[in-house]
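Dataset card, provenance and construction

Sequences and ligand SMILES were collected as paired inputs. For each pair, a complete structure of the chain with the small molecule in place was predicted and serialized as structure tokens. The example below shows a pair involving flavin-adenine dinucleotide. Curators did not alter the output after generation; any descriptive sentences attached to a record were derived from the structure itself.
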Amino acid sequence: MVRATPAPPHLGVATSAAQDGDWRSWVDAMERLGLASGRVRELTAEDVRAICRSPVFRAGILLGLAATVQPARLARSLRRAILDQGVRVFEGSPVRRFRAGSPVEARTPGGSVRAPRAVLGINAWARRWRQFRRTILPRATYIVLTAPAPERLAELGWTGGEGIYDFRASLHYLRTTPDGRIAFGGASSRAGLGTGVGARLDYDAASVEKLVGDLHRMFPPFADVPIEAAWGGPIDVSALHLPFFGTLPPGTVHYGLGFTGGGVGPCHLGGKILSRLALGIEDDVTRLPIVGLRPKRFPPEPVLSVGAYLTHEAIVRKDDAEDAGRRAGALTTWLARRPRRLGYRIGPG
Ligand SMILES: Cc1cc2nc3c(=O)[nH]c(=O)nc-3n(C[C@H](O)[C@H](O)[C@H](O)COP(=O)(O)OP(=O)(O)OC[C@H]3O[C@@H](n4cnc5c(N)ncnc54)[C@H](O)[C@@H]3O)c2cc1C
């Protein structure tokens, strides 16, 4: 059972002067749409300190309608729910061949499945599919988990269970656990050449080491608390930072991709969209602009690999310099801003 307890709010904080006020456009948009009241509140640095005392936290925003989930519990509960509906699940069965016809056919080493309609939710692995190759860019994100140290959380005043993130372009996202740990996540610090989905997207020692340093900088009382686990995985970065949904010819296969590392909340809407597409139902949900959206394409190889490598590393260097109270060098800043200048919603503006 996934407990959706009355959820503590989410706190977005600036960790450098360059991030101050980066949330204003969100707040403005929410106000324009009449969605701000009771949902979002701007916080002074003092307000932020009342929630969590980190030496690097500045002002921020509090999002009132928020939740944190335990992802393993979520996955296991979803599995149990569909098994209860009579669905058969075949884990560890990689689809090696796929035909989007009538019927749809998916072939695995152990057997084939044929169905009148199918849904593809294959995240960064879509990069291996010709149809999606230019629409997503696989990147990695990693998490480090401390040992339980509830007394250190108390020292920080971070006892309300709030999820926290910063406004770096190479985001940090963090939460506590009921037994007093910090789970500290962040974008990979190294891009590496190539845009495939390989083992390094699951674990990269250099990125993990950097993440531990970032954790200690943000929360000095955790400097001597052991790190008990570290893991990662691929995310499907889309050019406009928006998921997109659609249907492949001849009309029997529907897909949802491009969650850009933030798919847990939107997947609920994604599920509604995909089930309606598969059942041929048209309504407000299937008329959303993200359905049938032609995603902006990334450049072809080798331009993408080289460009993604140079800009990714520059984005991280710029964030790190600003977090250290320095200005990033001119070349780093120029490179970090290239994606936005070229119309991609990636990196700083
Ligand atoms: C470390 C980490 C932390 C994250 N933290 C957050 C967070 O805090 N908040 C948030 O919103 N999101 C977070 N995300 C992102 C979130 O997990 C994804 O956005 C979300 O899971 C995307 O859902 P999906 O169904 O599109 O893809 P997935 O959940 O990745 O599912 C795709 C599945 O397709 C399978 N697959 C691919 N190709 C094949 C094939 N050929 N044959 C068979 N199976 C195949 C894969 O094995 C995978 O199981 C995080 C991701 C990682 C890696």
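Derived descriptions for this record:
Residues 303-341 form one domain.
Residues 94-95, 121-123, 125, 141-143, 173, 185, 232-233, 235, 259, 261-265, 267 surround flavin-adenine dinucleotide (CB under 6 Å).
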